[in-house]
Structures are given as structure tokens and as C-alpha cells.
Amino acid sequence: MRDTVRFLKGGEVVELTDVQPTETLLDYLRLRRRETGTKEGCGEGDCGACTVALGRLMDGKVVYQPVNSCIQLLGMIDGAEVVTVEDLRQDERLHPVQQAMVELHGSQCGFCTPGFIMTMFTLYHAEGQEKSRKTVTDWLAGNLCRCTGYRPIVDAALQSCFDAADDAFAWRANETREVLRALMDSRDIYIGNGDSFFASPASIDGLAALYGQHPDATLVAGATDVGLWITKHLSDLPKTIWLGRVNGLDRVEETPTGILIGATATYAASEPAMGRISPDLAELWRRIGSKQVRASGTIGGNIANGSPIGDTPPALIALGAALELQSADDSRTLALEDFFIDYGKQDREPGEFVTGLFVPRPDDNQVFRCYKISKRFDQDISSVMGAFLFTIVDGEIAAARIAYGGMAGTPKRAFAAETGLVGAVLDDPSTWSTGMKALLGDFTPLSDMRASAEYRMETARALLAKALMEASGTDPAQIRVLNTREGSHDRAA
Amino acid sequence: MTAPLDPRTAEPQTRFVRKDLPHDSAAKHVAGTATYIDDVVEPVGTLHIAPGWARKSVRGKILRLDLNAVKAYPGVVEVLTAESIRGTNDCSSAFGDDPVLASDEVLFYGQVIFAVVAETRDAARKAAQQAVIEVEPITPIITAEDAVAADITVLPDYQFRRGSPETGMTAAERRLSGVMHIGGQEHFYLEGQIAMAVPQEDGGMFVYSSTQHPTEIQHTVAKVLGVPDALVTAEVRRMGGGFGGKESQANQWASLAALAAQVTCKPCKMRLDRDDDMIMTGKRHDFRVEWEIGHDSAGRIRAVEINFLGRCGYSADLSLGINDRTMFHADSSYFYPDAAIRSRRLKTDTCSNTAFRGFGGPQGMLAAERMIDAIAISLGMDPLEVRKLNFYDGERNLTPYGMPVEEFETLHELIQQLEASSDYWARRDAVRAFNAENAVLKKGLALTPVKFGISFTLKHLNQAGALVHLYTDGSIHLNHGGTEMGQGLYQKVAQVVADEFGVTMDKVRITATNTSKVPNTAPTAASSGTDLNAMAARNAASEIKSRLIAFLCEQHGCGAEAIHFGDNKVLVGDKSFSLGEIAKQAHMARIQMSHAGFYATPGITWDRESATGRPFFYFAYGGACSEVTIDTMTGEMTVDRVDILHDVGHSLNPAIDLGQIEGGFVQGMGWLTTEELVWDEHGRLRTHAPSTYKIPTASDVPEDFRVKLYESRGNPAETIYRSKAVGEPPLMLANSVFCAINDAVASLKPGVVPELNAPATPEAIMSAVHKIKRAPAARHGEPETS
Ligand SMILES: Cc1cc2nc3c(=O)[nH]c(=O)nc-3n(C[C@H](O)[C@H](O)[C@H](O)COP(=O)(O)OP(=O)(O)OC[C@H]3O[C@@H](n4cnc5c(N)ncnc54)[C@H](O)[C@@H]3O)c2cc1C
Ligand code: FES
Ligand code: FES
């Protein structure tokens, strides 16, 4: 047992004993350390002004990822190197990314700038990134700038981020690695008392026991939801249990039949494996939140929060994923769609937590498609998200699994459309209409600030039509404004 | 007021003016060392303020306000209500209708009723939620249509009228009419509203405020505290963005911080949470525009009638000037022989809409572009042809408000150059070919002009002051009334002053805008910051310089022509001195080395009452050509390529100007595409966070983005180094994106005018797509009404 949170900052190991259950990293930096370079623009993970880099050991290397410090709990930085904008200058000399931003006029009001600098810093240290505007805009999607129009920032990143890292962090990488290794231990962290604590169990058993004892505690994975309860709803969460150090809960394993994803595997960690199932999943994952959100947010959290507009559940449901749950004395598996009972209600008992899920790989005779519709392409929540898995036999749909987000109080399958499509002939669009019409009966969506009910319904139909068109051989380039399946006419046999 | 063009050969010798110097704070921005108000070291004992409001109510009498639980919350020091105010409970710019704290009635969703002062911000925010508030609800007036039906306005109607639009309309060969909705826009300055007030001796108050208008902060705080203006000092070193949102709307937060400081005698800081900021502060005005246009079969406009129904919100704020500017720009760049341009300033039970880059102009111009597109589509002509046909020219050059467009040649030349450099006609063919081949995806192309009037239309605001000191070591202190919000004003003015003294930039110390240094200033707005303040600063510097020259002439018995300032040196004949040496000598000789410079824009004669005279010193011009692709199944859209050519006269700093152009364009693109403000049926703003209100991200900016400064012969008006203002005009370059989307929709049924509203979200695009698909085919040769 450990009653401290330890991390590396500015070359020194910091050990804190006073960590409040809901204290954010940003408040720690700005209010306690009085390091005001890191800014608060929104307090909800959307603007990136508060971005800091967290360095962690991954496969024996120090990997820097950007996170939104406004919605990271302070305790979540245990074992990491925290890099903020104050740490980049060496002897008054600007870091190459800072230098490029000055030279190329990448700041105007400057308020967003430290956040951009830190995201760029992580790109500077990322290996194997293709030097392209696409790479840069993807890395910067979580940093909003209201002044510049981004062009000079993108240029500064292109100029400075793609050469081999040659800064103080690269020079002392070996040292950093040793320090981080020493900070990693398998002790449970527990700071506080029985009524109020921040805890971070190191094993699944430890988690099960603690959560069994405190079923009223709040489980925290990436805090990309929980963080907002703190900063926006001003919730008092006296007991927080961070899952990030639970050994084995973050696994991503590809097997011949599918992928095992641990509950705390982040979006970022599961992205490559999911992308190998389908380019649409790669693109869906890429469009979830931003680099910052994907570095923190977990699949387990995206499912456990039960949101009707979570992006992964419809895709995972269409693929037929199974969810694993565990508690102090039990574990069980259920079809993912059965987990979502109603708006705000999931099939999860007190003391029970998600350990992971299994995502079956589609067969050769199956076509998978998914589409996310939102007002803005990057870092936006779906108004409608549709996922489709068609099993094709002799040019006919033998079976269909279709799920939507944004169309009901939960991510939900379109059973009527699925049934209506059985027997539809891919080459004969007139045979699709039974299924297309049936879809109308599957949902009664709501109107909100993201879209009206009518738009949702008609878009759901449009997405089904697109999936059918593509399954029957239409080149995605002809029907997608953002075509990310270049040249892939993967029409099923 | 216009002088002969200064030919390039007559360009004055400059060392820093016209150079691509970085922003004055660039190195500090990237290092995180630029100090914003929340970064200022807090005096010991600083208290924090959070606003209290009725989260469930939109409009109605306050029946019950129980603050006991708020007061009892741990850490709470004081709870302020309207009764705490010793002065006047008003923080409006002019009209006296913006209570700092609501007293007996809630006027809109988000109105502040009380303020909690606590030891920490967290405690203040949590305590604010403990209030019990009951409001007797009345049905609120939310939309422009509601307000029209109720016939309720914040300010009287106003109109421009020229000729007889009625006769013109009847005489016109063809007539078209339509209704268009143009959405508002949230500023989303990255640094939210913030102020910190520190009590001083004798009841005085020092206020740090993130404001574009320190003088108004000073006056408002004095009024609310009930003390003379002279007891209050307002200061701002930099804002993390303003865009108009901190012109009048910073007043309330500064007032509350000062009020809390007055009541508690402690320093007090108020930083709004982002959601509160978005809910409580005003936005760009949204409009319902009803238009009718008469034209001939060649596409020439004969008569125009437009009603601009602007939603102002619960109070007048700056709506007078804003709605006027909508009218001033309802012509875009086109000559309207007969015109009636009417404006109603509608009162709704929503936050009070306010200044936003363009100040009403963009909405007026967008309406004009819609009319042009309608003419072109209904005649089967290319919209660019119709645009050019209706441009102001040598004969047809009088605006509907009577000011001549003298620089029409710049407009023609600029558009001609852009037409060529963007390869408009070849791309028009390519777009047509693409659309013929593609059933689902459709491309659109549009090239639109910008002509933006520069000057405050409230005449008295066209003045500025600066304070320059030369110290005895030769270093220079520079201060002026303009504020820095990212636009590079401080650096441009410093460049001018450095060149005036012939010193390097490091010798000029830029200092925070402060009402005790330069008083009675105008807001930094209307794009005029540099025009005004650089002139005032140059006047101050050149006055000090003349005194030094007079002193040196006397000292050395030479003429002024023997004296030369440059390279941090002063040459007197063949002798060379450092500026410091000269300053020391001058000081010993008791020469005053400080001067308050002043500037007032000449030639502005606008008289609103009679709607005559000249409102603008000059116009800034630009043009943009945008190409988009839409998905007619989902309404998704990408901007594929944008070419921009923009006129900044002779640029003071091309890099900074380019930044304003690109940034303005992208901000305008957001306004017209992804940025949608949604109020629910109860009148509550639903899009009050960046999770639901979507400003552009890096990937929304087209990969193919070609932005150039127009090779100007210099501003014909005698501005500072013949430059032109650049803050607002580029925003309207984004009209080309909207028109291109409209063009793509129009391709679905030639001859039918699409009913696309702004912003063109995927849903708005789909709605226009459905409508055009359902519309009967245009009968050839007959006018079509949209
Ligand atoms: C800026 C921003 C952008 C976003 N964009 C998207 C987007 O594009 N698409 C999208 O789908 N979502 C988006 N989200 C939402 C968010 O990222 C996801 O919902 C996320 O997956 C939550 O995961 P987390 O690990 O951060 O969960 P947390 O916030 O840590 O937890 C979320 C909930 O799940 C519970 N929980 C977490 N792990 C477990 C577990 N193992 N067992 C039981 N309960 C658990 C928590 O107690 C909590 O109730 C965005 C969020 C932000 C802030
Ligand atoms: S402050 Fe906006 S993301 Fe953290
Ligand atoms: S420089 Fe102002 S927000 Fe980016």
C-alpha cells in the first residue's frame, strides 16, 4: 500500500501525500504550483488550452501523449513524467516547436498557444509519423484556436515536428526511463480515509475487493466523462477509484477470431487493432474526441457510461461484441447490446465493473461499414452514428446486424431493418426497400441541439443506403466527402 | 480627405514598418510566460466570485430568492445582490438597460441575480448552486418571428431610402423575393471573461479587466461603485481574444469584481466558467432577412427592398451601431439604383447580442450575395458575371446612404486578378463536369467580393491618444489607448514609433493599456485600432523628436536637415551620438521628453438623423473564391480549395496582416458552416459549451488555401503609412464558402433558387436539398421566386 502519488516533473520526482479525490491536474499546476503557463479555456476537454504531455513507459520506451489537464485527476499522473510548457525552454533557448511557432507567426492572442506547443511536443517525440498535413491536423484536432485560422500552426508543426527528436527530453531519455521504471510498482495507492479517498488498485482482485467494499465509489478510467462531472456539474465525488494502474486491465490482444480489449485500454491503444478489422473503424476511432481524449478515454468507459451517443458501442454491437463484467465474487459475459437497458440504465450490479470485451473479426463473406455524422468532422459528438455488418451469400444478404447511436436512449440495434434486409439482392436496389422502410419502425429519435428528429431519421436511412451501395460495389470515393477507404472496393464475394 | 495615391517610388524609408516582425509577445506566448489576467500574481487574501442565476427560468418576476444556504456554504465571505450596489445598478454602454444584478425580474436565461464571494473559486461556484429561486414564469419571446408578432423592439426602426424602390420594382423586367435566416455566432475567445479588482486608498479601485474598452470599464465601475471616474483605473496588457465580445460585455464582470472588492475591502477576482460565459454574454446578431429585388434580363439590378429583422436580445447594448452597419453593408459591392433598406431592432428575452468582428456588416453582405445568386440562378447565368455586372463603377458609384465609392477600380482590379489566379472559369467547367458525373456528391464554386467601410459610424469614437516618454538612457516608453487582443496592434504601433525615433525595436517598451495614462479612449474595435493609435503614437513621437531637433539645432548651430535619427544613433552633421546621450543632454537643458499624442480621423461627416454625409474614411477590399463538395445524402460538406486576395493598402506588417486575413476567413467560415446556436422551445441556450458549439478545427481549413495580399498602390486616404485596416473585413471573405454551398445545392435543379439558411450545417444543407428536390422545375425564361 502506498499513500502517495509520485511523478516526475522538471527532472525531479515529486511525491504528494495530499491528493484530493477530485482535484484536477490543471488546478494543481495553476493553483498549487503557480505555474500559469498552462491555460484553462473550457474546463471540459474540448479546447486543448490546458494540454500537457504525460510521458509513460510503453514497451520499454518513454512515450509522450497529450492530455487535457483540466479533466485529468491529479492522482492519474502517478508514475508519469508531467511535461508542461514551462519545462520546454533550455537555458532560455526555445524548444524547436516553440521556435517554429514564433518564426511562422503561429500565435496571435497566444492563449491557445501553450496547449498547441504541448501537443506539438508530443508529435515531435512520436515515432514513425508520416510527414503530412493530415497527420498534423489529426494531432491538433483537440486544440482550438480562434485567432489564426490554423494555417501557420500547421506549418510550424510540419517544419518542426518530423525530424528525429533532439531536445533535452531526448538527451535524457535513458535517465527518464530509469526513473519512470522505478516509479512503477505494484502497490495499491490509497490516500484518504474510509469516507473520502483517492485509490488506485494495482490488481483486478484488489479492485474487486475495494469496489465491493465501497460500491458507492466512482470508478475512474480516463476521466473524460468523470472529469466533467467535477468541473461542470460540480459533483462531490468523495471516493474515487482510478483503474489506470490495474494490472492486465488494459490488454489489447489480437486472436485469430477477434480482439480482446481490456476495459482500460485507451482509444489510442486499441486503434491499431481495430483499424486492422476495417478502415472504417480506424476512421471512427480517429474521429473520437481528439488525441488528448483518445490518450485518456477508454473503451470500458465509453461502454460503462451508457451514453446513447457513444461512438464505439454501435460499431461493437454490429460486430457482435461480448462484454465481460466482474465483481468481488462473480464474473459474467453478456452480449454488448444487452448491457444497455434504457437511457441511464445498464445491466451492472453494485460492485460490478467492466473488465473487457471480445470483438469478433468479420468473416470473409461479411461486409462491415460504419459512418459517423456530426456538425464538425473532428472532435465532435455524433448526431447519428450507424454501423452495419452484412453477411453475403450468393450476392444476397443472408443476415444483417445494424446498430445506431443517437437514435434512441441507448445504442440500439435496428431489428426490423435487419429482418427486412434478409434476402435483399445487392445488385438490385429495388429489393432493399423492405429493409429501408422497416428502419422507420425501429426508432423514434429525439430532437436536440445536435440534430432534429427528422434529420436523424432520414440520415439513418441514408447511412443504411450508403452501406448497401458500398456493399454492392459502389466506390466509397463517389459517395463520401471524407473518403478514407481509398481504392478499397471490398465488396463481399 | 483623399489625397493623390502615393506612388511606390515615394515610399518613405522605413526599417521596421512593412517588415514581417513577429507578434510583440510571440516568444512569451510559446513559452507560457505571457501574463493574462488569471496569471497575474494574486494579492494575499484575494477572494473569488461566481455568478448566481436561475437555471430553470428564462423570463419572469422573481417571487422568492432564498440565499441562506449560499451564505452558509463553507468558504463564503459575502453574497452580493442588487441591494449591495452603492452607485447605479447598470453596466450598459449607453442605454441604461443592463442591470449588473437583476433585482425583481429575470429578463433572459442566464441573467445574473446574485454573486457569491468566497475564499476559493470552487467554493463560490458550488455555493452559487445552493440558492432557492422562484420565478413567476411568463412566456418568453425568443425568435425574431416572436418579436415581430409582439411588435417589440429595443430601439426605433431605421431606414435608408434612395430613389423610388416601389417604382423601380414595378418597372423591373423581373422580380425575385425570398426570406433568409442568418444565424448568430458565439465569440469563443479562448480566454473567457475575467476581471480582478484591487481596492485602493480613498475608495479607489484598480481593475484588471480583459476588455477591448478600458475607458468604459473605468466609467462603468465608477458608476456602479458610486465614485468619480478619477478614482478608478482600468488596465489590460493583453486579452486571450476579444472579437467584439469584450467591447461592452466585459463591463458586468469588472463591475462585479469591483463591487465585491468595495464591499469586502479585499482584492476580488471573477473568472467566468466557459458555460456561464457562453450562456450569459451576447453574441453576433442573428437575422431574418426579407428581400425583394427587381432586375433586368441581363442581370442588372434595378431596385432592392430589404427588411433586416435583427434579434438584439433583452437590451440595446451596441445594437444601434451594429444594425446600422448591417444596412451600410446591405449593398456588398453592388450598385442599387433604387433602394429601401429597413432595419428593425427586435427585443427578445435572450442574452443581449453584441459586437462581433464585422459588427453587423457580414449579415448585410450575405443578404446581398443571396440576392445576386438568386438573379444568376434564375437567369441561368454564372453568379460571378452577375456580381461583376452590378459592381460599383465610375458612374454608378453612390451607395444607398449617399457615400461615393471612389476606389471602385481597386475592387475591379482585385476581383479580376483573383478570377485569373483562382482559374475560376476552368474550375467552373470542372465543377460542372463533376456534377454531371456524380449523383450523390455535388461540387459548388463561388467568388465573392468584400468592401468594408472603415471608421466608427458613431463619429466621436474616431479619436485616439498615445503617451510616449523618452528616458535619459534612450529607452522609450510607449502607451496608447488601443488594446491588444492578438491582432498585433501593439507591435504595429511599436514599429511605427521605432522608425520615428530611428531606434531598434528593443528600445521601445510596449506597456499595458491603462486609463490613467491615456484617458477617454474609444474601444479597440471597428478595425480602427492601428489607424487611430499608430497615428496618435506617431504624433507623440514626432513631437518629442522635433523638440530634440530644435534643441540640437540650437546646440550645434546647424539646420534641421543636418540632423538624422537612425540605427539607435543621432547624427548631427558628421558627429554621431547615441539617442541616450542626446536624451541626457536634452534633459539637462530642461527639454520635455514626454508627449501625449492625439489623432482624430478627418473627413467623417455622417449625420444619422438625416442619414446624410460620409460615414467612412475609406473602404477595405477583398475577394475570395471557394470550392466545396457536399454530400446530398447526409448534408456533410468539405471546403476543398480557397483562394483569397485581400487589400490592406501598404501593409505595416504583412505577416500580421496575413494572420488577420486567414484567421478572419476561418472564423467567418465557422459562422456560416459548423457554428450553430440552438435555443430550445423554452428559450434556453442549449449550445453553451465547445462540446455542442463547434468552431473550426485545423482539419476544417482547406489543404489548398492560397492567401495573398493585393499589390496595392497604397490607401488613397491619408492613413498611417498608407495602410488599411484589416481586423474585420476578412471575415466576410467566408461568404464565398456559403455561396459555394448554395451553388452546389443549386446544381440539383438548374433555375431553382435554393433555400439555404446560415449556418450551413449538414442538417441545413439537407433541408435545402430536400426543398429543391421537391420544387417544381424552373420554367425556362420565367422568373422564379424562392
Ligand atoms: C472533448 C471530448 C470529446 C469526446 N468525444 C467523443 C466522441 O467523439 N465519441 C464518443 O463516443 N465519446 C466522446 N467523448 C466521451 C468520452 O470520451 C467517452 O465517453 C469515454 O469513452 C469515457 O471513457 P473514460 O475512460 O474517460 O471514462 P471515465 O470518464 O473515466 O468514466 C466514464 C463512466 O464509466 C464508468 N467506468 C469507467 N470504467 C469502468 C469500468 N471498467 N467498469 C465500470 N464502470 C466504468 C465510470 O464510473 C463513469 O461512470 C468525448 C469526451 C470529451 C471530453
Ligand atoms: S481547458 Fe479546454 S480542454 Fe482543458
Ligand atoms: S492565438 Fe488566439 S486562440 Fe489561438
From TrEMBL, chain A:
Superkingdom of origin organism: Bacteria
Keyword Oxidoreductase carried by entry: yes
Pfam family, any one: Fer2
Residue ranges the record marks as coiled coil: none
Keyword Iron: yes
InterPro entries on file: 2Fe-2S-bd, 2Fe-2S-bd_dom_sf, 2Fe-2S_ferredoxin-like_sf, 2Fe-2S_ferredoxin-type, 2Fe2S_fd_BS, Ald_Oxase/xanthine_DH-like, Beta-grasp_dom_sf, CO_DH_flav_C
Keyword tags: FAD, Flavoprotein, Iron, Metal-binding, Oxidoreductase
A GO molecular function held by the record: 2 iron, 2 sulfur cluster binding
UniProt name for this protein: Xanthine dehydrogenase small subunit
Automatic annotation (TrEMBL), chain B:
Protein name: Xanthine dehydrogenase molybdenum binding subunit apoprotein
Obligatory cofactor(s): FAD; Mo-molybdopterin; [2Fe-2S] cluster; Mo-molybdopterin cytosine dinucleotide
Protein family according to the UniProt entry: Belongs to the xanthine dehydrogenase family.
UniProt keywords, alphabetically: 2Fe-2S, Iron, Iron-sulfur, Metal-binding, Molybdenum, Oxidoreductase
SMART domains reported for this sequence: Ald_Xan_dh_C
GO molecular function: 2 iron, 2 sulfur cluster binding; iron ion binding; molybdenum ion binding; oxidoreductase activity
Domain Aldehyde oxidase/xanthine dehydrogenase a/b hammerhead: 31-139
Organism: Roseibium hamelinense
Entry keyword Secreted: no
